[in-house]
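Quick question, first post here. What does this chain look like in 3D?
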Amino acid sequence: MLPTESPQRGRQPTPKGTAVRTDVTLHPLDEARLRALLAAAVADADPREVMPPVDGPPGWTQARQDAFLAFHRSRALAAEPVEVTYTIDVGGVVSGAARLCPLDEPLGTVEAGVWIGRSQRGAGVGGAVLQRMIGLARTAGFGALHISTKPENTAVLRLLDGLGAVAVREGDSVTSWIDLVEDTSTDVLVDVAEGPRS
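> Answer (accepted):
Ran it through. Tokens below.
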């Protein structure tokens, strides 16, 4: 079971010499945070970066906004959730989302997904989030973390390499695996803040 509320602390791998941002927190998604997440997406992300495709003209149409809400309600906020989603708060402001979704194969593996608003990219937010996600997955008892990205996402690939991830290029994506059983950590505190509940 993935942590969904109350602070969680644990060890997780951190590239040596990397400072972890302390103003980046994760909060479990609920209805109130879902609205704030949509507002952050509309203000600071392209729909193609944060949700499955929706037909129609480009941009944040009403249909895309409705689909964004429906997507999260059908996954993390469903009666029987298939994943746990967290809002990424930077300095107390919702700035993106992170999710952990258990995979059927290989057993004991969880997939991580992250999107961060454009104004926060390149400032260490992604590294802080990934480190916390690794800690959450390890605390929940998973043995491996699966992450997919594009080959041109060099910042994420460098971060994953620094964490000891094994990466494999598959067409136009790179799949990375982080072993959560082998302790390669150096000292990082993991916090998941409890968000308001609806």
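Strands lie at 24-28, 84-90, 93-102, 109-116, 144-149, 166-170, 173-179.
Residues 4-16, 185-191, 194-198 have pLDDT under 50 and may be disordered.
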